[in-house]
Amino acid sequence: MRKFRGVVPSLALLLALLSAVAGCGVSAEEDDDTLTVLAAASLTESFREIGDRFATANPEVDLRFNFQGSSMLAEQIRQGGAGDVFASANTGMMDKVREAGAVAHGPDTFATNRLTVVTPPDDPAGIDSFADLARPGASAVVCAPQVPCGSAAEGVERNSGVRLRPVSEEDDVKDVLHKVTSGEADAGLVYVTDAVAAGDEVRRVDVPDADQVTNEYPIATLDGGGHQRLAQRFTDFVRGEEGREVLRRHGFGTP
Amino acid sequence: MTGRPFRPVRRRKQSSERVVGVPAPLWLPASCALGLIVLPVLGLFARVDPAGLPALLTSPAALSALELSLRTAVTATLLSVLLGAPLAVVLARARFPGTRLVRGAVLLPLVLPPVVGGLALLYLLGRTGPVGSLLDERFGLTIPYTTTAVVLAQTFVAMPFLVMGLEGALRAAGTEYERIAATLGAGPWLTFRRVTLPMLLPALGSSLVLTFARALGEFGATITFAGSLRGTTRTLPLAVYTEAQADVDAAVAMSLLLVGVALLVILVARPGGVQGRG
């Protein structure tokens, strides 16, 4: 009997592993009324609200969001990640997905976003303009050029002729915001919508219109999700009057 | 990690009858485990575009990240030895109330997600933190966004490996030799130098490898506490993540650099070290 002592636990472990794997398979299986929306991180607050309203109007739909950087989402879609709708923070990432042949309908621009300077409420470095970010002694944090908010920041630098020397280039606009709200940076360059979401935690210094770069947010339904009609209903809702109203309240421009 | 090969208790009794075999049910999960470790790395190689690889491997972004990674990981490992080895000796040999509590605290960075460690460092040593604000006011020193911050973050997550490795070896070795040295008239310092230290050396190899590897791969605490800027704080893992946002081929090439360094450490630097044989 003693020699079976090791067998039972290892069999149990194997069973547990197998059922875990099987469990993953089941949960990934598409339910008929499940709609998966892959959306840029900067859409988190507004899409949650739009989602609540869409759910009220369509109670039979089980809406699921996946909020991440647009670049990461685009790569996941290209690698075959399941999703029914993709809302990107810039056209470049949507182009990647379209080139991969994953777009069913669209893309259509549903929102625009612009950059703004934010500082901690007490403004320790005395930042009054975009050019002040480049002042020696002022620690500025921006997005890395590889992500949409970073390429927009580069555009503002080009338009204004101000060359920034940031202390850090973050991978995510929310990380830039956190560095400012936690007081670890004198200023950061974030989307207007992030500044709106942060409320009193930041002080806004607007970038002049002439220097602005407008980021366009395209939305599209995806091939392979298997819920074309539902997906189309959701994108229509986002681009409709109710969706636009929510987006505007969160600081987006709407076309 | 204890510096001793594992010996089954019943070995002698059974070996007289037959050789100890591996129970058949273990083979399947064992090969699954190996596959889970090896296959993703092979997948990484499969994703490589051979034509563009040399240029991507020697791009300024990749080289600067590699140089920064090696420099900071070596510094963090040295710092871990300088501070962590004495801590290991104290934990293994000193008798004071709360030893258990201290040992638990040393384990904390192993259990905490690195991002939490980074936040903790930020709120202590950042400009608004209790220690950071003091440094800022008195000496005009800011730690976040500097290479020092990278080293601190790496030391925070990696040092426990060194402390646990050395402490385990000391406890396994027991205090017998040290007691004998004491009866022969050696003081604590002489005993430490001539008896304790030589006993530590075999375990030091394996602990060093683990500490360096952990420091080299550090991501979460670094990006949270030190930020990410090429040449200053963007180590290889951070560069891989940033590049993955836009140029997957460049990210894969940088990942290969990391895999290369890791293999070098495991295979060339300390062949027996990882198995704890020294």
UniProtKB/TrEMBL annotation, chain A:
GO molecular function: metal ion binding; molybdate ion binding
Example of a GO biological process term: molybdate ion transport
Gene3D superfamilies assigned to the protein according to its UniProt record, in alphabetical order: Periplasmic binding protein-like II
PROSITE patterns on file: PROKAR_LIPOPROTEIN, TONB_DEPENDENT_REC_1
Binding site for molybdate: S42, S70, V173, Y191
Any one Pfam family match given in the protein's UniProt record, by short name: SBP_bac_11
Record's keyword terms, sorted: Metal-binding, Molybdenum, Signal
Signal peptide (UniProt feature, chain positions): 1-22
PANTHER family per record: MOLYBDATE-BINDING PERIPLASMIC PROTEIN, SULFATE-BINDING PROTEIN
Record-stated family: Belongs to the bacterial solute-binding protein ModA family.
Record-given protein name: Molybdate transport system substrate-binding protein
Lineage summary: Bacteria, Bacillati, Actinomycetota, Actinomycetes, Actinopolysporales
UniProtKB/TrEMBL annotation, chain B:
Any one Gene Ontology molecular-function term assigned to this protein's record: molybdate ion transmembrane transporter activity
UniProt-listed CDD domains: TM_PBP2
Tagged with keyword Nucleotidyltransferase: no
One GO cellular component term: plasma membrane
Domain ABC transmembrane type-1: 66-269
Keywords on record: Cell membrane, Membrane, Molybdenum, Transmembrane, Transmembrane helix, Transport
Protein topology in the membrane: Multi-pass membrane protein
Subcellular location: Cell membrane
Transmembrane segments: 20-48, 68-92, 104-125, 145-166, 199-217, 250-269
Function field: Part of the binding-protein-dependent transport system for molybdenum; probably responsible for the translocation of the substrate across the membrane.
UniProt family annotation: Belongs to the binding-protein-dependent transport system permease family. CysTW subfamily.
Protein name: Molybdenum transport system permease
Organism: Actinopolyspora biskrensis
